[in-house]
Amino acid sequence: MNNNERGPIEFTEIDLGGDAGEGMRIPARDPAAVTPSKSITFSMESREQAFAEEALGRADEAGEPAPFVPFMSYWATYQQMTEAQRKWYFYWRSEVRQGRYHRTDLSYIFIYVYELIHQVGWTDPREGYRLLDEIWTAYRDTFPRLDHYLKEWTADFVLIHKLDIPLIHITQRAGSLLSHELMDLELVRLFQDQPLQIPMELLLILSDYDVQDSRFYVEAGQEDLDYHIPRIVSLAAGYLREKENDQWKELFAPDIQPKTTERYLFHRAVYDARLYGRLLPVTTIPIRNHAPLRSWVTQIIRYTENKLREHRGFKGRLRGVEIAPSIERLVELYLKRELTGRQEERPAIVIDSDKLASLQKDTEYVRSMLTVEEAGTTEEKDEETVAPANKSSAVYSNPSGEGSTIHPVVGLHSEEAKEPASFPEMDTRHELGSGQVSDTDVSSDQEHASVTETDHSPDPELLADDNHAISTDSRPSESVEATSADRAAWDTSGLDEEWARFAEMLAPYQLEALRILTGSTPNADLNQVADRHGTMPGLIIDEINDLAMETIGDLVIDGDRIAQEYMDCFENLKG
């Protein structure tokens, strides 16, 4: 039945009957029993906003000398520091402002960088850029992961303040490229320069051929290719601009619709978005994807490699190289001039046999005089003179009869050698021509010198000097050890293409971190990897997840473990 067909609504009255009775009486309120109200206040201020306000308030705070206190925090702010850590920070910051960079922890550096982002410590943006560059330069060797963050934050700083600073300077400092939209922006700027000067790292992103994977590049031609390819591209682009302007415009100034990308400002920094906003629109031409330009650069690189292979006598040639005859002649003329000129500049090595014989004679005389000694000590002195000739440590007997191992130079300055026999006057300075041999040949005497290696205890002071020299000269060994420790390998043959691309983008220490996260005790082992590379476990995890988002479109690490749904993908990741 429709609502329209219903009749009028009827109500029924029900009488319950009986007396209503006396209701419940409500007592009067006692004023003394009323509890006074309490107001509760809370702040909606974010962590970033609180940091920005406190940083401005502490901008001029000067620190007194204080001892260093370790500090490690993922989101480093003033609130995370203890009182002792704050005292060290403000003392260290005062020293940094004076150009003195003491040893400190990475989290202190991040707080200082956050301050610079929030306009603390500078008034002119160019000064702010200089301070960012100086703190980066001072600590990038100690903390290599600064490159990863400061290259993007410094680029944001340049864009926000519209500084006339080429972004290529930032990429060359970091040793790696910026995001795609910024590389497009920099390429468009470089293409307007005359003459065109594009560094090798940018030419590689414009080429469909990776010359660095070439056998010629790896085995023999790296120096030649890195030197000549940018110059040849510059020469060819200049030729097109002057002689074939239409083709130059088609390649370097094409009519392509500009593209706007919203860039997330100061990503992963403690940054108050009220200052500059959260997103920055970047409008540029996507020149990296311009097919004619990519083909042109690719063919020039391949043709140049073939010509250098031919010049160096390297077997094999790249096939399918197609290049305009005018550019081909240009490249050939350039390489003929450069390679022939380089060979002509090399001085011819001429050995003057008369002077060489004279040098050998003088050397024999000097050596014989150095070995003159009282009866009974000739053998010991012979052993001392072998040390400088061998340029290595030698064992000698001191007057007390105990053996000592000494630095090669110490042998000539020992107590027994302080009073050498008198020498006839001789001019030991020899005027040698270009390329002539000036080293003294004492190998024939070294063969007859007897160096007895015995069980003598080395002199601790001399060994300390040797160890100090060795430790000073072998500082890069730390990075070698770190590299050799990260030996994880991942077989992605059974996975999809995006997983293979994800694996290719991972650095060795990131692969090692993923392997550790699949194990039973990830925390301690991951800390060791982070320590070797001057970073923190949380930063490594974020880097891996960033690469995963770019390739497979999802996060592979949840918390401090591999996400459960992706565990099977890492079963072939072995240590």
From TrEMBL:
Biased composition (Polar residues): 390-403
Taxonomic superkingdom: Bacteria
Biased composition (Acidic residues): 376-385
Classification lineage: Bacteria, Bacillati, Bacillota, Bacilli, Bacillales
Positions of the TerB N-terminal domain: 43-244
Protein name, as recorded: TerB-C domain-containing protein
Pfam families linked to this entry: TerB_C, TerB_N
Sequence ranges of Basic and acidic residues compositional bias: 445-459
Coiled-coil intervals: none
Domain TerB-C: 468-572
InterPro entries with a match to the protein in the record: TerB-C, TerB_N
Region (Disordered): 374-489
